[in-house]
Amino acid sequence: METLNGDHISLRALEPEDLSFLKMIENDQAIWEVSHTQTPYSSYILKEYLKNSHKDIYEIKQLRLVIDHLEEAIGLIDLFDFDPKNKRAGVGVIIAAGANRNKGYGSEAVQLLIKYAFTYLGVHQLYCNISEDNRPSIQLFESCGFKQVGLKKDWNFINGDYKSEFLYQLIRP
Q1: Rg of the chain taking only CA atoms, in angstroms
Q2: Which residue spans adopt a coiled-coil conformation according to this UniProt entry (predicted)?
Q3: Separation of alpha carbons 9 and 7, rounded Å
């Protein structure tokens, strides 16, 4: 599908071979704050997740795609809380720690996902929630046209402290 192929990366469905990559991402405690994870995922749970990842977004209200660069998985991008009645969905993205960060791959992935969501799913708007101190994500989503529309004060309790969270939206032109 043309919509899911960019100049440097492509977005594709999860495959059983992605188990070790998925386990590395999901169990990276450095990003648990962003993913709201509190416990590690077992290989068994992730295998079961992969078995069901083929289900339709209209059924499970979520779509997770792998970000590929030169046929190597470098990240994940999600549509979540898909609401076909109100034509909206949340967006989340992660590029695995290491050499692939800060190269524009996250931005390209978000742009591809925007095009896919607006063109194929007919959504009217996309949104994301970003911690007030997550400058890289704020810059990423602002560079893709998202606008800050709200602040949820003391929204998340992280390491004994409350952090506020911004709400960003992109409404279809």
Answers
A1: 16
A2: none
A3: 6
